[in-house]
Structures are given as C-alpha cells and as structure tokens.
Amino acid sequence: MNAIDELFAEHEAVRLTLKILKKIGRQVDETGRIPHTEHVDQLFDFFNTFVDRCHHNKEEQLLFPALEQAGISREGGPIGVMLNEHQQGRDLVAAMKADLSQYKRGDRIAARRFKKHADDYIALLDIHIDKENKMLFPMATRHLPANHLSEMKKGFDKIESEKIGAGKHAHFHRVLEEFEGIYLRKQRN
Fold first, then answer.
1. What is the crossing angle of helices 110-131 and 3-31, to 10°?
2. What is the pTM of this model?
C-alpha cells in the first residue's frame, strides 16, 4: 500500500464514523436526548486522534508540502482549501464536545445544538473527502513519483506511531466495528 492508498483507506473509516454520528443524530431528533454519551465521547477520541492528529497530520506535514514542491499552489489552490476545511472540522468537533458537556450538565437544549453541529460536520467531511478522493489524491498520484510516495508512506508510519501510538489504530477499528453493529445493523435489513 502506498501513501495515497493509505489515505483512501482511512477515508473509509472516517465515512463509517460519519454514518454512526448521523444515526446518533437521528436518535436526537426522535428523543431530544443524546444516546449513549460514552459512545459519543469515543467518537470524539476518534475524530481528535485518528482524523486530526493522524490523518490530517499525514496530509499537512507530508502530502501538502510535497504537492507544493511539485508546483501545486497553497494560496488560492486546493491545498489552501483543504487546510481551511481541516480547521472547520476541528472547530465543529470542539463545538460538539462543548454541546455534549453542557448536555451532561443538564442542558437538554444542548442536544439540538449537538445535532446541528454534527450535521454540519458530516456535511463538511463528506464534501471534503470527495474533494480529496476525486481531485487531490489523483493529482498527487500524477505529480509525485512512485519512489516519493513510498518514502512518504514511511513518514506516514512514523506519524501514526508517534501521534496515536502502538495498538490505537487497531483499537479504533474494533470500536468502529462494535458501533457499526449497534447503530447501523438495522439499516442493512
């Protein structure tokens, strides 16, 4: 697996979390309550650790600079757009965390704010992932030589071990598998 293939694969895990978050949002609509707040906390851990500290770091520290060196513009170009969307995602996760904290302290209206921020996050990441999968990653494959992508993969492995630690990646996949069974099982029937 090269560096770009790894980023594609990580997007699939992110899309699964978005489906789970969407299902939780539907439950908020139906009940006015945030179900299983401990699960939501685990999703936040995934968003902060896997999505931001690992996946976004791989892009921001290695992929984007390589693309800039290959002549792809940051300002007014696709890299600047991706960086801006990464920050928007961070801001929305922070807002959802604040909403959940207020909800846990008894503010039941915070559930609706949480749902709105969750919907905004889902919409943002769905579009963001499509842009990267359909435009940015193919651009990287065209502009970066295979040996550069192989070296980048080694850098990705280092980021993963330093930013999320040994075993955490596998832990996230186990949690997602469990949550998929809890939240998405009924959608398949």
1. 150
2. 0.93
